[in-house]
Structures are given as structure tokens and as C-alpha cells.
Amino acid sequence: MNIKDKIKTLIIEKPLKLDCGQTISNFPLAYETFGTLNQNKDNAILVCHALTGDQFVTGINPITKKDGWWTYAVGPNKSIDTNKYFVICANVLGGCMGSFGPSHENPKTKKIYGADFPVITINDIVNAQVNLLDFFGIDKLFSVVGGSMGGMQVLQFVSNFPNKARTAIPIACTSNHSAQNIAFNELGRQAITADHNWSEGNYNSNKTVPDKGLAVARMAAHITYLSKKGLQEKFGRKLQERDDLKFGFDADFQIESYLRYQGSVFVDRFDANSYLYITRAMDYFDLVKQFNGNLSNAFKNTKTKFFVISFTSDWLYPTQENKEIVIALNAINANVGFVEIESDKGHDSFLLDVPDFLKAVKNFLDKSFEEKL
Amino acid sequence: MKTEYKIIADIIENNSSILDVGCDDGTLMEFLKNNKSPNIRGIEISKEKVQTCIAKGLTVIEGNAEFDLKQFPNDSFDYVVLGQTLQAFINPELVIKELLRVGKKAIVTIPNFGHWKVRLNLLIKGTMPITNSLPHNWYNTPNIHMCTIKDFVKFSEIIGFKIFKSLALKNKNISNINNSNLFFKNLFGELGIFLIEK
């Protein structure tokens, strides 16, 4: 079976004007669904994935043959219970799991877009995704949920479509990328573009890909997803399959070996140009600036019930940045709950088995679903 | 249901907007939500208790009233409730001012340190009082700013807020506090309940 047979796509015919000024139309948006849409069509949850995620939220990912990226949180009887809710997830615009992205062919030139693909934003990503609601005939989502870059999409979604979600759960995210966030993303992009195989983004036609650069980008990013304490406890200074230091540059330490492994498996499933485009979309995200310095204005027309969640050891999108979202919502008397979850697993906590987090999401969703409209 | 909660509920008008500061496990919030108004929020410092509130379907923010009330604009709520926690703040004066800024009205309840048992405890034993409503030792109590019903009445004059209603609770009996009975209510009331406004 061809990879393409495993990916559902919606062709979006309607022209979409991107923030960069270009307009795209007749483009594919790859998506997956889990659970069943009820008759009233009021049990749908849009899950927004993070930088390196995809539409295969839970169950076995048919492409990688591994568990979906949010298997801990999504599935039958889990926090986002697919026995109860209809979960929709789309691969982001610019992604590499079937949605319109830099590895697609430009119909005008018949060449792979590469670095000629238009620069996309979180706003564009969300505006593309909303077409899925029309496709399924869903007037209003029960919830829109996402962590990290997925959380940014949640915020943008509610801002763009104030009447399209009953509840929203932005997790471990921010309303604008900090200098530190941009710096780490730039490090990753530089690693990719410095790889000789990147060839100004035209590598697809050369059949050689910038694996080394992409792996380094992933390794650097991976460090930011973990906490110092978590790393120390898991690896410390433990040596990798050896009794002593080898006085060379092989992976003496387990942490080195671990990072190398993370880099090597990542390049098998991810496209370097997509990495450039999506990290750029994150860097450009600034909901505060979009609303002239007042984040509250982004949400002033919405009745959506928010639940903001952060993690104690997340230094990439720390609690304070999540709290700024809460403060902006409280300033306009929006309906918002907030909890900071105790965890030493860093930014990645939202993807892992963190019982307090999983319990909070489940309770919030199930109780909100019971509430009368 | 605690008598204290019933009294608070009786004071609050139906369908008003309410903020419960230090909402604990959400017992009062749940009661008010079901009986008074669905428009109710809470703020609670303990992560564990925030989780309990979420499990009850309540909208609660994890936070500290001393720092986190400032995010709410003036007159955000019809009522702000502070149940038996004023004495635990580092700066009760600031908290009261914030309550009155954020809420059009505030309901404050205080465990009365002027109760005769408390007084007797100190007088006879010569040690810090330990009673049913004040069960902690001096070295591990969260209550760092205890006051009496009389203190609170004086406090209103010093800070300059109005007391609209003042009630004393003794066992399960409620009575009004006024200038002429203040001495006795301060001696026999276990809990003072005040409806205040700036």
C-alpha cells in the first residue's frame, strides 16, 4: 500500500489569503479523525499538533508504525475520550504528512516548492484548518485543544472564530514567541541550511537530503523540551555501553547517544524544509502585537470557556507566559480556569504520562460536556 | 452544609457574578453555583484543591489572592467572598482593598479571636489558644494575623470601608451585631460574617 493511501486529505478549493500576501487555493489538507461524530454534531474536538506532530494523534501511526504522539491523552476512556468525543486533527499547513507544504510540487513550474513555498503563519494554519468544520458540517466544536505550538493555534482559533468552540485548552504555550524561543528555532534552522545537502532548499530534486542538519536541529530542540532535573535523573553522567571514557568524540555518555538516536529517527519522518517553515510560523506568532499590544482584545468577542495549563519544569514556555494568557482573559471577565501541574519532565510533560495533567484535562472536558448549553 | 455557607448564600442575590477567594475544595462554590448563580469563579493557592474544583466542574484559577487579584479590573464581580482566610495573609489590609476594588461588594468571614474560650485559654494556660476552629499550634498555624470581631469593626473605620451587614455565628445561631451588643458578640461569637462595600 502506498503511503498516500493511508492519508486522508481534504482539497480546499476556496482561496486562502496568507499573511505573506500570497493566495493559495485547491490545496490539500491532510487529516485524521478518531471516535464518532454524534447526531447533534456537538461532540467534536479539534486537536492541534505541535511543531513535529501530525494528524495521527493516537493509535498506531500508519507511516511510522509507532504510537501516535498523544496516545497518553487521546483514546477510548482516556482524557480526551474517543468513546465520547469525535477527535479531528489536521496536519498543519507547511507540514510534511500530506498537507500542502514545501515538498509539494508547484503546479506552475512543475518543480518541488522547496524554499519557494510561501512563508506561513499560525493564523494561516488555523484558517486552513477551519475548513474541516465545514466539511464535517460542524457548527461549533465542543473543544479546541493543543500543547506548545498546538496551544498557539488554540488561541488563534478562538480569536479568529469566537463562536466556533464551546471550550478551549491551550497547554504549555505562549501568546508570543520570546527571544529565547526564536533563538532556539534559529539555531535549528541554521543547522539545516548549513548542511551542504540543503542546496538552498532544492534537495528533493537532488535525492540527497540534509539529514545531518535536521538531526542537529532536532537534538538542540529536544534539549529544550526536557528539564535539567529530568535529564540529570535519567542520564546523569552515565556511560554508554562502556566502562570508561574513550578519549575520543564517540558517544561516551548516554545522553549523547540518546540525542543522536533522537536526531536519527527524526530525519526518517520529517522534512527539513517543513522544519524551517513551521519554526518560522512559531517565531512570527504574536497575538499581542496582532491586537495592538492588548492580548485581551484577541478574546473580547468570545464566550468560550478556557482552561489554561502549564508545567512547573517547562522553561521553554514557562508558567508566567501561560499566566499572561489567563491575566488577559480575566481582564475582560472571560471564563477561564488555570492550573500549573507539578512535573519534572519539562515542556514535554504534556505528551507524557503525567497523571495530574491527564486527570485535569479529563475532568474539565467531561464536566464541561455535561453542562447545559 | 455549613451554616456559614447558608448565611453567605442568603446574602447573595440570585444571578449575580461571584468570585470565591481561597475557594478551597469548592464546597461553597458548588453550593452557590447550584442555588444562586452559575456565574461563579474561584481562586485557590493549592494545586491539589484546584484539581478537586476542576473535578467538580468549577472554574478555578490557581493563584494567590495577595498577588493575583490585581489582574481583575475594577468591579469585575457583584460579590467577592473571602471565607476564613483574611488572617492567613501577609498583608490583610491590601487583600481587603483588593477585594473591594474587584468586587462591588465583599463578604468576609473571620474566626473570632475574641471568643471567650480563646481568651480563657490564654488567660488560664498562658499558652497560645488551641480551639476547635483554631486547631493549630503557634509554630505551624497558617493564621498569622488573627483578629476579633471588634478588631474587624475598628478596621473598617481605619481603612474606610462600610459594613452593611454584620452577623455573629454561635453554634448554629445567627445574630446581628450592632454597637450596643458588640461587647457580647465579640465574647460569644465564634465567627463573624460581614458584608462590606468601599
Structure in a nutshell:
The complex is a heterodimer of chains A (373) and B (198). Chain A has helices at 122-129, 131-136, 149-160, 179-194, 203-206, 211-225, 228-234, 254-269, 272-284, 287-290, 319-330, 355-370, and strands at 8-12, 16-17, 23-24, 27-34, 44-48, 74-75, 80-81, 86-90, 105-106, 111-112, 141-147, 165-171, 305-311, 336-341.
Structure description:
With 373 residues, chain A is of the alpha/beta class. Chain A has 2 domains: 3-178 and 286-370, Alpha/Beta hydrolase fold, catalytic domain (Rossmann fold, 3-Layer(aba) Sandwich); 182-279, Rna Polymerase Sigma Factor, Chain: A (Orthogonal Bundle). Chain A contains 12 helices and 14 strands. Chain A has an 8-stranded mixed beta sheet, sandwiched between helices. Chain A has a two-stranded antiparallel sheet with strand order 2-3. In chain A, strand 11, helix 3 (149-160) and strand 12 (165-171) form a beta-alpha-beta unit. The mean pLDDT of chain A is 96. With 198 residues, chain B is an alpha/beta fold. Chain B has a single domain (3-197), classed as Rossmann fold, CATH 3.40.50.150. Helices cover 35% and strands 25% of the residues of chain B. Chain B is built from 8 helices and 8 strands, in the order H-E-H-E-H-E-H-E-H-E-H-H-E-E-H-E. Chain B has an 8-stranded mixed beta sheet with strand order 3-2-1-4-5-8-6-7, sandwiched between helices. The model of chain B has no long low-confidence stretch (mean pLDDT 95). The A-B interface holds A 305, 307, 326-327, 330-331, 333, 335-342, 356, 359-360, 363-364, 367-368, 370-371 and B 17, 41, 47, 50-51, 54-63, 71-73, 76.
